[in-house]
Amino acid sequence: xxxxxxxxxxxxxxxxxxxxxxxxxxxxxxxxxxxxxxxxxxxxxxxxxxxxxxxxxxxxxxxxxxxxxxxxxxxxxxxxxxxxxxxxxxxxxxxxxxxxxxxxxxxxxxxxxxxxxxxxxxxxxxxxxxxxxxxxxxxxxxxxxxxxxxxxxxxxxxxxxxxxxxxxxxxxxxxxxxxxxxxxxxxxxxxxxxxxxxxxxxxxxxxxxxxxxxxxxxxxxxxxxxxxxxxxxxxxxxxxxxxxxxxxxxxxxxxxxxxxxxxxxxxxxxxxxxxxxxxxxxxxxxxxxxxxxxxxxxxxxxxxxxxxxx
Length: 310
What we know:
Helix content is 31%, strand content 32%. It is an alpha/beta fold and 310 residues long. The longest helix is centred in the middle third of the chain and has 16 residues, at 173-188.
């Protein structure tokens, strides 16, 4: 295994035996590497296989085939070292209500065999902005604080790899931003991050590379900017003086979306249409254009293209 590779997944598969003698293939010949020090996005619709893969890495699901190598340790030969090399932050907020954050982190460190002199509880509390609540009981912690505590728990044994499974699901905008700042700070300190998320804007903002998984298979794997460049869709917005309904499309390729503040938005394929033609057709409909704004496609467009009809 290359020294610059934090995680190697090679030909990994998982098949579940069902009661009626049939089987369900949750993972089908998955292969990818995660480089040391990068933020790697693992994206896919519900049921795509992301959770199965994370559970294999966490030791709660046994793979049917393939190689998993974590920080130089083979999962089959060195399962304990693999678990020590990974911290997993789960989706579900599940913390013991009878302990304070400081006590909970000390207990978690003890479970990982971290000697008292080697524990960095105070540093972790500071990093996750929980110092003020170190000695408070769980009932006084907000939902956002409890979610940050999950991140803190995953860090007690100082793993070189953190897996964040939907870390911002169900949280408000301010907390999401705080959690993402935590992620960036951890990465700046050298921690390799694997991120699953439904918020594609997060992946676009944070991830160096992205793998998109669908029906147990990798359907795309590339640098984030390369994935975006493959999509030919662009968006153009018009602010018009005499705002009115001109129908739901300009032609077979140009659908119209009506926005607030006298704006309309049109998505177009740059291999089929161009801005000049669209402007001409808008004016043909009797609209007077005040302003024009164009946008490139975003990761959501990539995601939809790669996962639909597959």
